[in-house]
Here is the input.
Amino acid sequence: MAKGNYYVGLDIGSSTVRAVIAESRGEDEVLRVIGVGKTPSFGMRRGSVVDIEAVAKAVNVALEQAERMAGHAAERAAVSVSGADLLCQEALGVVAVGRADGEVTEDDTTRVLGEVEARLTMPLNREIMHVEPRDYRLDDIKNIKDPIGMRGVRLEMNALVVSGSASHLKNIERSLDHAGTTPTHLVAEPIASAEAALTLKQKELGTVLVNLGGSTTSIAVYEDGDLLHLAVLPVGASHITNDIAIGLRTSIEIAEAVKLQYGTAVAKEVSKKEEIDLSLFDSQEEDMVSRHHVAEIIEARLEEILDFVNEELRKIGREGLLPGGAILTGGGAMLPGAVEVAKHILRLPVHVGYPKSLGGILDEVDNPEFATVIGLILYAEKSGPGSSGFPAGRVWDKLPDGMQGVAEKIKFLSRKFLP
Here is the structure.
């Protein structure tokens, strides 16, 4: 996130890198999108960094596009984190109420939050990313949402802790450092997407957000306003493209073009006589292929992805039991027929999720594939700069204020010369 009233979101996906710069002009005004960048992603595989330099170059391209449009440098950003190594687990914290009269204050809730982290036994190769409070218990009173102002002796917090691989988080930091950008918030991708695509009512009712990305599908389940479960599945829309390429015996590029132009996930709605001329995509191709066959390939893989989602819901006892239904985001959500297939497999109401309305150049971001990056901006605005405490140990952040300004300029200029 940039200084002052500017916010930068950076979604580093396995297939695409998206950057958005937004401006806040006042507390009562919505954020205005003033810069957007989008470029193919390199150096990422299934949500994890496999080539630091390639990721840095892709980040550079997306950020520079957004910077040129916004006329503002993007030295700091809220960044998404995906990958199947994202895990969630329940944790409990307990503290004694600090005041003599037993009134619970904000200091008590802060201390019990710290106690949750302190009591949680975390392997050395993992780092805590989020601690999401579910409810509190004050003495014998359970299921308290906000204990501040209440009176008691013993305060407990039940929380959901989201953690990531320490090496993966460090590799993201290293890639951003090579790109001359400092991460102020590292946010789990499904949490960011939910911030943009889910309403408070949907979170209260019970809703699963399904983000259909390039090589991963992430889910976040909310109930009673709280995060109930989170998972990242190692399969996504690019696997549909791979299946089409194998089924048609053609290249990935042609398979992707066929998917985008003729693809649908409901095979029964396509005539078996309808054919696709592959020479329209490549003059060296001569085959005519059945569009019905392409639809069957897409439907089979999408059903498999949604079966995995159902399995996650089954683990927490919510299969077919979420009144708010399922909200589909990500590039894969725009696939024709995806909603119909999801309704059939998940046995829930299903809708495509669009990012919350902001001001500015909305036509650039009013798309489910921008849900994560818009959610990053909203998350950063709500949390405040550096409130996540991540990364807390960077030498950069320990510099005096005057020196930090010089340092940021050096980092910005270094990005311009990165090959």
Observations:
- Confidence is low (pLDDT under 50) at residues 385-419.
